[in-house]
Amino acid sequence: MAESTTKSKLELVIKNIRPFPDFPSEGILFRDISPILKNPSALTAVIDLFEDHVRMTYPQVELMVGLDARGFLFGPLLAQRLGVGFALVRKKGKLPGPTVSVSYTLEYGKAEAEIQEDAVSAGQKVLLIDDLLATGGTLYATCELMKRQKADVLGCLVVIELKDLNGVEKLKPFPLFSLVQY
User: What is the pLDDT of residues 69-88, one digit of tens each?
Assistant: First the structure.
């Protein structure tokens, strides 16, 4: 993709991220992706930018893994473009059949994420996708879940990275690609 096209697509994405001060609590500036989903051109721009990055950087990817729940919005669209499958990582208790889970700590407590046992094969080359990286807890837990499944995590993709929260440090050694940083 030409640099000017990439720049105009990024500008469209940024224009469609809506800030909400003091949500969900005072002092938090929430970055809302709903306008991206409402605007077909902005959503296409997100998938185009991810697709270009993945094709250049990870041509060997075999599976996209989306995090509950907003990773489900971008992951299947990107997987379809790439001609690869998509697997769900959900909150504990939301998937049928045998599952594998991992516990992790959030800013406000503990949580568990799980994946169906047969969703990822040992050695399968996967990319993880979500809408936002904040402190990195959920994305890191998903990396750990993939390691338990003996998958080869190539990297992580997010639309938005909140740089001040330094979640990228928690993900090391897994590389992060973010479209927008705040």
Answer: 999 999 999 999 999 999 99
Per-residue DSSP letter, 122: T
Cis, peptide link before residue 35, omega less than 30° from 0: no
Give me the active site residues, please: 70, 107
Name the token pair of 127. 């990319």
Cα end-to-end span (Å), the chain:
24
Supply the DSSP symbol for 163. G
How many whole angstroms separate alpha carbon 69 and alpha carbon 85? 17
Longest dimension (CA), the chain: 47
- pTM exceeds 0.85, yes or no: yes
Reading the block at residue 38, the tokens are 């409402």
Q: What is the pLDDT of residues 30-47, one digit of tens each?
A: 999 999 999 999 999 999
